Amino acid sequence: TKHVIKNIPWTTAKNFTVERGRQQIEELISTWDIHESWLHHSEFLEEELKDSKRYHYRACWGLPTRRKPIPRATASVYFIIVISKFKPDTVPVEVFYRLESSRLIRSPEQCQFREKWLQDIIENKIVCIERL
């Protein structure tokens, strides 16, 4: 069976605000198939002005437990919301994300997020911590 990629309708450039961007990232995250034991928080990082406006956000993930309410390691997903200077402001913003351990930039429309990516980042960090 073919896996359906879930996405959300993104706001237009003219209706975009930093807070609206964060809310929409949360909305996107809610479509991801991730176990409820994962907790995260999202935050706005910076605005970058180049050939387009780029708004940078981060969602930081962890797996707290009763015995260890502060996770040993976390995994971050970085989001960029792009508003083109050359397209009409009625066009939806473009959204991309990447994992902290990767330079590969993904688009929510083209790639379904996988919980395993978060697990791999955390497992690799714990292995590194234990080696030190």
From TrEMBL:
Gene Ontology cellular-component annotations: cAMP-dependent protein kinase complex
For this protein, the record's InterPro entries field holds: AKAP, AKAP_28
> Would you say which domain of life the source belongs to?
Eukaryota
GO terms for MF: protein kinase A regulatory subunit binding
Recorded hits in Pfam families, A to Z, give: AKAP28
Q: Which PANTHER family match?
A: A-KINASE ANCHOR PROTEIN 14
Q: What is this protein called?
A: AKA14 protein
Q: Which gene encodes it?
A: Akap14
